[in-house]
Amino acid sequence: MTSTASERRAFAHKINRTVAAEVRKQVSRDYGSPQLSKKRGGAHHPLPLTEVVEPVDFEEYVSSHAPAVEPGPLRQLVEFPQDDLELLHQDKECTTLEPPLPEEEDSLDPRVRDALAVYTDDWLVIQRKYQHYSTMYTPHSSERQRERQRGLVKQTFELDEVAATERQDDQDDAKRRSVSLDETPRGSWASSIFDLKNSSPDALLPSVLERTAAEDMDCRNTEARLQGRHGDLLGLYPPPDEDEAVERCSVPEVPKEHCGQRIMVKCLSLKFEIEIEPIFGTLALYDVKEKKKISENFYFDLNSDQMKGLLKPHTPHVAISTLARSAIFSITYPSADIFLVIKLEKVLQQGDIGECCEPYMVMKESDSTKHKEKLDKLRQQAEQSCCRLGRFRMPFAWTAIHLINIVSSVGGLDRSDPDSDSERKSHGTWNERKKKGFERMSIGDDMCNFATFRPATLTVTNFFKQEGDRLSDEDLYKFLADMRRPSSVLRRLRPVTAQLKIDISPAPELPHYCLSPELLHIKPYPDLRVRPTKDVQEFPARYVYTPHTAYRNLLYVYPQSLNFSSRQGSVRNIAVKVQYMAGEDPSQALPVIFGKSSCAEFMKDAYTPVIYHNKSPEFYEEMKMKVPANLTDNHHLLFTFYHISCQPKQNTPLETAVGYTWIPLMQHGRLRTGSFSLPVSVEKPPPSYSVLTPDVQLPGMKWVDNHKGVFNVEVKAASSVHTQDPHLDKFFTLVYVLEEYSFPFRLKDVIITESNMETELKNTMAALRGALLDTCVRFLHQLLNKLIQLIVYPPVIAGQIVNLGRAAFEAMALLVNQMHKNLEGNQDQHGRNNLLASYIHYCFRLPTAEPMMPPTAGTHTYDMPMQYATLSRATARPSSLQLSRSKSISNSNPDLASTPVSPDEEVQRIIGSKGIDRSHSWVNSAYAPGGSRSVLRRNPNSSCELKQLLHEELALQWVVSTSTVREAALQQAWFFFQLMTKSMSHHLFLTSKLDIPRRQRFPDRFVDDIAALVCAISADIASRYHKDVELVERLNTSLAFFLNDLLSLMDRGFVFNLIRSYYKQIANKLHTAQNPSSLNALRMDFIRIISSHEHYVILNLPCSTLSPPASPSPSTSSTTSQSSAFSSMVQDQGVATMFELSVPFRHQHFLSGLVLTELSLILEPDGEGVFFLHKKAISAVHSLLCSHDADPRYSDPQVRAHIAQLYLPLLPIVMETLHQLHDFTETSPARVRHASAHADDSDPDGSNTISQSVAMAIAGSPLPHAKANAFSLPTVRRMQCVSGPFPIQRLQSAFTQKQAVRHVFIQTQKKVIDVRSHEPVFRKTATE
Known about the structure:
The protein is an alpha+beta fold.
């Protein structure tokens, strides 16, 4: 018997293997055959899945099916909510108690007016109210999954229990063989096997023997299954990989002022061995490596009240803002080369620096009794000097603190690890991330984290005497370099013994009692009477790419050196008085100079320190001023040179003027900054001198050293009004001249008149590419606003309206592309620059008034009727854009002369052809927009405004653009797409068109432009996917996001046709593609982004009845039978159509049909589907299901039933696909091949391998799964090429397990099928 049974088993096994192989070959052959594809495409309309069906006319259906037709909760599935779009005015955060505004309120300079409009207007945010339900902003991530799993009870399934029971039985057998009765204690599990009498009984099951009707048992089971169920079951499944979520995006950061790492320095006390006179201190940061001063000066006064009293006659009023003893310094680029330099000054007295420092270096506090008489004499001299020369200072001593020693020696406090999770997530602003990058540049810089070190209190004891001939910054940098490596240079300097006690610590995030660089009170500031802390203005060592968001207009003047060696007369103790003059009269000196310490807040003049008996002194002084809002040609800086008489003499004045020079601040519309070498006049300047420079040889004037430049001075501006870039300044100046129509206007050597204004403006716009990028970024908002204004409101020149659309579009495209190339670290995963994205999201708005009418802040109305006219559009439109009416496209291209078969092919031929001839189009015509004759005359009898729509002009200019401009626009397509989207949205609000039908919202010409643009970009994607991989990926996602946005604004049927056009372009290229997997991946990403729309369910018309009579969508009343079986449903063709990707299904559920079609095609056995494509397709479907499952809008069972119908074709897709899938219960070489197929798609042999388990399942034999769980995840060893489980298991687990199938499709139980009757089918599928 044993031999016979063995032979039978061998014979049967051999037959089964043979049958399995034949079945497998037949299934694979049939599955990939065109006949089966046609069958899957639909029995009545044999359209294969590779072709996209014509979508439903969405607007027509919605207009004929009012939401009220559907009962109850189903109304929300018919149309978008009325409040889908919302316009929000968000208040800008003001960090100070007083708004940072200029004191002048009337007749503001146009630069200041525009800057204030940018800095004070509220943020204008237009958003889709329900977009947070989309997977764009609420993705199914690991973090979200952990939140869902909190408090859940572990689920145990039948298959798990069977496997566990069998394993337990094996353990019991082993114990029975190894354990005897005498060795086991009574009452234990092992003893109960042999001692049943004394074992404890199990709990009784009272109803186990009761007779219960099948219906009652089903009801009980149904109720038991519904108890304790999780509402978001699919969301509990492991989330997809982060890189698969291509639809992921985040709201841009709110624009804010740049801020580096901040340290706080508190000056506690300053003591010398002797106290005889007041001493004043200055703090500033210097970067030795960059040789740059990286902060403004902070002045402090630690003198006793007795010493301060000596200067009371010179400072009758002391402002509390000048009493600060602590300062906050900002450091954008931390470095090991940064020093905190401390300089000390004293009141001017007779004698050079060495003589005045001598008492401090030789006298000790312990010797005070010994030198009492000498000290009294010194105090008396100091008192006399303070009384007579109290307004003048002289250099005294200096020292420096190497900040890296503070950070490294004290040790870091909670210093962040560069590889920490927070760093990997790339959170924070661009400047924060850039700072972190600089922290890792070298070993030294890695320790320069000035934000987290432990506070330190230092006592500085060694000060170096100032050298009268070595006061320049260049000398200081040499000294600082020597401080890093102590050398003989510093040893030669005699130290001044003193004790300066300071505290250095990381600055708190919100310091109290802090003043801004403009002396505004920074929040929080609880009490205005408390001694303040000053926020010190930073001068970053390198460029900072952050736009200005607040008004700032400061000027810094640095006198550097003076050469009066050839000046005749007594000129030795020289002080330079600096004044900011509004005119030439002495009374017109403005009180705009910031005070130092223990003085008035603002003053009319400031003096440099005096170097005793030096005719060629060097200076280190910094003079800070606030620039008036209204600058004129008469505003200038006046420098007056005085000889100071240190020794009182009869008939000798204290000050003797010995020279004059000046700097006009406004010239040719620009604020003059930079380094100047100025000649000095011996006499007072003549009348009207302020409009000229001192370089002009004025008649009758005497000059020092024959009119040579003898005074060197540097002027810097920290301004959010004046760009200080010649290209930007010229552009803004011409725009303001045009707005105010102030012709003629002199711009350097050119006289701007009406005749040459257009040419000059276009040349200036083209020259913007030469502007410094950091300046363009700092004034990004104003620059883009002006370019947009020139498009929306074409300027009027000599009664003619000139269209500058092309020039503005080109300038914008080149600027945006330049930012992308140079700021690669400031981009998100889709290549979008965060600065530009934040501008569009928060700042951009359509101009609603003519430029010459200054906009009034805070007044916005959205119900006013507005009339628009677009220039040169009706009569001079390119024939290539008349899509439906074009017969012959070009006379020079014979390939385009034939009549296209369809509009899609027509667009493809027009735009997709690289050799298109535009010579007969208006594009190259002088009358085209931007052409030399592109003008329209304003009708004097017309009262309507002539205004262009930004989105229309952008679309048109993009379509007709060529060469470098078109390439630049393609590189940053996302920017123009988002700009157009917000322009369209804002336009709908401004014109109150949100309530009208979508087909009436935008004119046909704009719709044509959008169609041509989408088709052109689709052609670029299809033709350049193998050459410009990075560009095509960005372009593909940008186009998908754009169409996603258009679904909320335009005719949705039109957008569906754009999607269909894209699909046709890609499909045409697939036939000849060398690497079709890349194109398939692009198309999968495209449809995934489209499908991430928050109203994806509504867009698929889940309640529609558009199917033809042969396959109608079943109604609720016709499918309530509880006894219908799957076989009877297949016979009913109407219901069967719902379970396949038929033409009616793909027609009425367009997006869902595309997603499921992609899944079906990618999983075909003879297709070139590789592992990463399987993963993409399954991840997309999984993400959608999780999104629906967690969406609170779809909690009603009736609503969920209709949503479930959108996924009915998923069941046959899964079951048909199982025949060629790998066996994931054991190691299979084929899986590694699938995972690596993306690298080599030419090896099809591995797909013929049939595992034993699959063969036995096909042959009808049971699987030997007693020792393993069929749903266990693959081990890491078996998945070497990818992380996470193989994606098809995700599909099986999500759609074939009993619990998941019931959860997703339970709502169709009473509408379509009886799920319970098919549980064995699903169990068998899972077993297979």
